[in-house]
Amino acid sequence: MILFINVFISDKRFYQPKLIPNDPRYTPNRGDVFKFMLSSLSVIDWEHVVIYYELDDEYAHQYNDIDAHINDLFSCDKQIYHYRNYNQSMWQESVLRLDQFSDNQLIWFTCNDDHIFIDSSVSYLEYIMQKQREMLEFSPYVTSYISHWPEMMALRVNSGEFTREIVDDNKKYFVMQWKNADAISIINKGLLKYWWFENDYGDDIYRRTDETAYSVVSPAMKTIVPYREIVRHFDGYEHVGIDPNECPPLFIPDGFFQSQIKISSCKKPNSNSYVYLDVKNRKTKAFAKSGTDIRCLLNEIPLFWKPKIIETIDECQNNSKAMSYRNRAILSLACSDKRGGFSPIRVVSFLKQSYFSEQNLFLVLIDSLWVWKIYDYMRHFIFIFRRIFPGVFNILYSPYKKLIKKETQQYWGENNSFVKKD
């Protein structure tokens, strides 16, 4: 597989998460976030690496540091450019540089500097890639959507704004037929060629395939969506209304770049020098001092952290109870986009092979009943009602809005921004 990156590193961002200010791990230097993403990707076996990156003025002094980091991480053939493609002719030139590869060559394509590979192994990713290669034998354009997992899980059920058809539903993934040009996917080289050679975009600026105002023209394609989270946006998905306590933003562990990570599982540490794991804690440390860094078990931490760990404390004594809380955390994450997507009890069977393969499914279903509150179900079913009966919903929306306004503000505030509760 080829790694293809085209990014601009800057503090100027479309979305700025609202974090408590006492933990610098959640507000790092954006150059370090880019290096963190690259580190996460280094555990994957690459045939070729192509990185176009440009630094904003405040980070211009970091070119040598980032280049050295790239060279340390990737031993395969690589190309590094200190600029970002921003128009069709530049993109065409970059595609031509890959002429030695076939149209079925898989490409991890991203125009983002902050989408982190967080899985605890590469086995699931390799399984998805193999299925993608098999599908490319019969279809010219096949992609795998590897990020924004809560949104994609909701899209499995919710008709939303995208025109698509579910054409396959496997035990580990589902497949959509649609047109899409999102700038974070595993694509095939043939699709990259189509994007930049099949249509004339004139002098338009295309720093990404999915510019804010417009996207490149995309053909009908098949897209694999895994029933497992593989990649997460560093800042989370609060900007699309997903509760950041259910799908938290990421952070750079203290000591990461020095290979001195310390982890405490189920025991609250006295300092931020430890990464705090607690499957029972429903709050996120980015927003509440009493929260946890990650709701997972020790063996589920990101793969790229593992060689950098120098100390672990594990006090999860009751394994069955810890596993029950772990299941709830996963179900909460899978259903965190409540715009008409899955409910916890419904999603269990879909995630069985990805997360619960060695467990009693009945016990996982019992765990699912403890995931949502009444308000969550209210919001979920309102979205379903709106989708099925849009006319009736428009009539009833005004009294509904007044009814839940107080409860909504408790969670999201006056300006639809998350309100921390500690």
Give an overview of the whole structure:
- The protein has helices at residues 30-41, 63-73, 88-96, 123-136, 149-157, 189-197, 319-334, 344-355, 361-368, 374-388, 390-412; strands at 2-9, 48-55, 77-81, 106-110, 115-117, 142-144, 165-169, 173-178, 184-188, 221-226, 231-233, 261-265, 274-277, 309-314.
- The protein is an alpha/beta fold and 422 residues long.
- The protein has three domains: 2-233, Alpha-Beta Complex (Spore Coat Polysaccharide Biosynthesis Protein SpsA, Chain A), CATH 3.90.550; 253-316, no CATH class; 320-388, no CATH class.
- It has a five-stranded mixed sheet. A four-stranded mixed sheet has the order 6-10-8-7, with helices on both faces.
- Strand 1 (2-9), helix 1 and strand 2 form a beta-alpha-beta unit.
- Helix 3 (88-96) packs antiparallel against helix 6 (189-197).
- The radius of gyration is 22 Å and the shape is globular.
CATH class of the largest domain reads Alpha Beta
Give the termini separation: 45 Å
CATH topology of the largest domain: Spore Coat Polysaccharide Biosynthesis Protein SpsA, Chain A
Tally of discrete structural domains: 3
Biggest pleated-sheet summary: 5 strands, mixed
Task: Give the rounded overall mean pLDDT.
Answer: 90
CATH architectural name of the largest domain:
Alpha-Beta Complex
Strand content: 15-25%
Q: What ranges have pLDDT less than 50 throughout 5 or more consecutive residues?
A: 406-422
Spatial extent as radius of gyration: 22 Å
